[in-house]
Amino acid sequence: MTRLLSNKKKKVGETPKKKGRKVTYAVSRPTLPKGMNYVIKKVPAHPLRFIATFNFDFVNEIKKSINEEGVEMFKNTIFGPYLNIPKCNFQGQITKCLLLLEVKHDNKDVLHVRHANGTVLQFGIKEFAIVTGLKCKGNVADFSYPESTPSRLLQRYFPDSTAGITKSRLIQRFVMGNWDTTQDAVQMAILYFINTFILCHLGETSIKIEEFLMVEDCTYELYPWGKIAFDKLITSLRQDFNQSKQMYRLFGMPYALNV
Description:
Shape: elongated
Radius of gyration: 24 Å
Helix content: 25-40%
Largest sheet: 2 strands, parallel
Number of helices: 10
Order of helices and strands: HEHHHEEHHEHHEHHE
Structural class: mainly alpha
Organism: Solanum tuberosum
Pfam families: DUF1985
Protein name: DUF1985 domain-containing protein
Number of strands: 6
Region (Disordered): 1-20
Low-confidence stretches: 1-15
Strand content: 5-15%
InterPro entries: DUF1985 (IPR015410)
């Protein structure tokens, strides 16, 4: 015991170890040629951090909620290929770099990013469509229903909310599973995927009855989900990043920026 205790004594002249501090390095950008300017004129003194509320573990969540037959049926939908992507985490640093290197352009619906070699790269709805494979053309107004049209899924699984529900409630019900039919399971999985991965929005966001109806009659396959997702994403990228706020939330489909 004496020996063990003596080992804990500090050696004479020993300097106590200091806890390491996180070092923040200054962000620098290359000087632009004359006539070209950065969108963010001055690099903010505070670090920019970006978060996104999309479900990066949707593959496992879908497999847990619907049976194997349902998973196979989901693979045959327009969203089936997404089951093959690895578990994806959102890297906010990528978004930060893109925005700090974005140069001004008349078309605000396209990101113009200066590459290290001096060229300007573009990321607009065309590139978004290539990366995601989602339909980005079409008129949303074409997908409307008479006001009195009922939804079978809403009536069965949300009997007290026949006009629509929130994203949070959809998630809560989906993880419970226990579907009447495999078809119901697949259709609920489609709604779950759309609202937790393609349309990255807050839990209190309303999911309208039209989305249920489109999934039920399969017209969702023709709906321009990519156009909606891109518009939400590009709008969230147009925030004011020069204020004191350090954390920014992205909407739409931020995953496309990480591919």
